[in-house]
Amino acid sequence: MRGQRHAFIAVAVTAVISACPDPVTRCQTDEECVARVGGPAYCDSETRVCVCLPDGTDGGDAGQDGGTDAGFDAGLDAGVDGGDAGPQGCGDAGPCSAGQHCVGERCVCDYSSCPTGCCQGDRCITAPTESACGAGGAQCQTCPAGQTCDAGACTGCNATSCSTGCCSGSTCVNPPTRVQCGIAGQTCSVCDGLRADRCDNGQCRCGPGAPCMGNAFCADQTCKTSWDVKQSMGTARAYHAAVTLADGRILVVGGVPSSGFNWSASAEIFNPASGSWTAAPSTTSVHTQPTATLLNDGRVLVVGGSGASLYNPATNTWSPTGPMRHPRYGHTSTLLNDGSVLVAGGYGTGYVAEAERFDPATASWSAAGSLSTPRETHTATLLSNGRVLVAGGISSMTYHSTTEIYDPTANLWSPAAALTFARSAHAAVRLPDGKVLVTGGQHRGTTGTIQALDKTELYDPMDGSRGSWAMVGSMAVARNGPTLDVLPDGTALVVGGLYSGGAWSTAEVFDPATRSWKTTRELSTGRAGHATALTAGKVYVIGGGVQPAASWNALSSVEAY
Q: How far apart are CA 469 and CA 509, in angstroms?
C-alpha cells in the first residue's frame, strides 16, 4: 500500500521539508531512503530511487493534516506525481531531456526513462560507447582498454578495440610483453621456444641480448628453423666461384655442370633486392676451379685454369689480364691491404710453389716469392697485420700440417707454427679478435685411409714469433670441403661438405666465446663444391652438388641464412 512507504513520518512531520541532501539515491525500502538522506524520503516502487519531498509538497502535507493515510496518500500523489506531469517543466530544472523524467522537481535518469542506454549522472547516454557503456538505465562504466561496448556490455578484443596490443581472451594486453606478445588484436603469444626472448613493437624479435632457442637462428631479427630458398641460378654448377660486388649483388662464375668435368665459362648475377638472377657475359677463357676476388675499384679478378680475367660491373664486360707467370688451379687468391692480389700454390704443370702478385693498375703479374712446400687445396687468410697465413694442403698425396706466412712488404715467405692435424680441402676464416679458425677437410687416418675431419684449430698470430695453434671444440660431423663464413655477430657458419656417404645438408655455428660449435638449421639439400657469399647480413649458399661414380649431380638452387 501507499501508506507503507511513508516511514519518514516518524522522522519529520513538518509541513515544508527543505533539508534533503540527495534527492536521487538507489533503494529497495523506504527505511533505506530515510537512513541515507537523513530526512523524510520514500523509495519509489517503480523507479527504485529515493524520493525526498522538497518545499512545495503541499498536497502531501495537506493529506497529513487531514489526519488520515488516505488523505496523505492523495496529497502525496498530487504533490509528487504533479512534478512528473507533462513535459512543460520540472520545477526549477525546466523541461527534462530525452531519457529523463521528473522526480521531485528534478530530472533524473533511470531504467524507466533510459531503457536502452545507461545513466551518466542524471544524463541518459542513449548510444553507449567504450567510455560510457551500459544498458537498462544502469550507471555507465568505462570499458577496459581494448574492449568494445556491444549492446551495452563491455566485451571482445579485436584489431579495432586493441589496435596497439594483443588479445588474451577478451582482454587487450597493451603494451605487449614477452609473455603476451602480439599486434593489432592478434592472439597474444609467448616469445620463447623457437622465437627470441624479446617482444619488440608487438613482435617476437631476436638480436643482441635476445638469442634464438634450440637450433633456430636469427635472421632479420626473426628466429628461423629453416633456410630461405631463393630463385635458382640459370645454370646448375659446382666448384664455381662467387663474390659479393660493391653494390651488394653476387657474381657467380665458372664451375662444373651436371655431367662430366667440362668447366664452364658462363657467369650470372644475383640481385638480393629483387631475388632474381640475370645472365652475365661469359669470361674471356674457361677457368678451372676458379677464385673470384673483389678489387678496391669494384672490378673482380677471376683466376683459375689457363689464366685470369677481369670483370667490370660498370660496363658488364670481361677483359683478360696480362699473362700469369704460372697458370694454375686449386690455388688461393687473397686481396692485400695495398689493393694487389696474392695468388699462392695450386697445380699447373705440377704442384706450384711460386706465388705471384696481381697489380690492378697495370693488370700485370709479378713474382711474390715461393712457398717452402708446394701445395694445393690449402687455405690463405689475411691477418690483422696485413700478412697472409697459408695453412695445410696436399701435394703428391701427402697431406701437409705446415703453415707459412707471406710478408707483402718484404715480398718473402717464412715458416709459422704447424697445424695439429695435417689436412687439405679445409676451411679457414679470420675471426674479429684476429685469430684464425681452421676446420674440416680431409687427411690420412691412422689406418692409412683418407677420412673427413671434424677437428677444429685456432691460430693465434700474437703468440710467439710463429704464432701458435690450439685445439678447440670439434664439429658435430666430419666435413670435407665445407664453406666457412664469419657472420655479422662475430660467430662463424660452416655449411655442407662431403662425407663417405655423400654431402651434408647440416650446418653449424662456432662461438668464439665458448670455442664450441652448435648445430643450426639444416639446408633443404646436401651440398659440396658449393660457393657462399655474404651480403646484407645474409649468407647465400649457391649451387654445389654430390659426386656420383662418374659425374656431378650439380645444383642450381640457392638458399640463404
A: 20
Alpha-carbon gap, residue 109 to 98, rounded angstroms: 9
Any idea which residue has 560507447 for its cell?
129
CA distance linking residue 498 with residue 496, whole number of Å: 7
**CB 471 within 8 Å of CB 455:** yes
Place of cell 535518469: 109
Q: In sequence order, what are the residues at sequence separation of 6 or more whose Cβ sits closer than 8 angstroms to the Cβ of residue 85?
A: none
223 in Cβ contact with 206 (< 8 Å)? yes
Alpha-carbon distance 438 to 390, whole Å?
11
Round to whole Å and give the CA distance between 466 and 2. 112
C-alpha cell at 436: 684464425
Indicate yes or no: pTM above 0.85: no
Name the helix (H) or strand (E) containing 119.
Answer: strand 118-120
First to last CA, the chain: 85
The amino acid sitting at 392 is G
Q: Which of 552, 540, 500, 506 is nearest to 525 (CA)?
A: 506
> In this structure, what is the dihedral angle of CA atoms 106, 112, 117, 121, given to the nearest 10 degrees?
20
Report residue 437: phi and psi, to 5°.
-100, 125
Q: Percentage helix, strand, coil, to 5, in the chain?
A: 5, 40, 55
- Phi/psi for 256 (5° steps) reads -105, 130
Q: Which residue has the cell 717464412?
A: 414
Q: pLDDT by residue for the chain (561 residues), tens digit each?
A: 333 333 333 333 333 333 344 444 556 666 666 666 666 666 665 566 676 655 434 333 333 333 334 333 433 343 334 333 334 467 765 788 777 878 777 788 877 778 878 888 888 888 888 888 988 888 898 887 767 788 888 877 877 778 788 888 878 888 888 788 888 878 888 876 555 567 888 888 887 777 777 667 676 777 777 788 999 999 999 999 999 999 999 999 999 886 667 899 999 999 999 999 999 999 999 999 999 999 999 999 999 999 999 999 999 999 999 999 999 999 999 999 999 999 999 999 999 999 999 999 999 999 999 999 999 999 999 999 999 999 999 999 999 999 999 999 999 999 999 999 999 999 999 999 999 999 999 999 888 899 999 999 999 999 999 999 999 999 999 999 999 999 999 999 999 999 988 899 999 999 999 999 999 889 999 999 999 999 998 999 999 987 654 556 899 999 999
Closest-CA residue to 559 (of 535, 533, 541): 541
Yes or no: say if 243 and 294 are a contact pair by the CB < 8 Å rule. Answer: yes
Q: d(Cα 380, Cα 344) in Å, to the nearest integer?
A: 8
The phi and psi torsions of 37 (rounded to 5 degrees) equal -85, -15
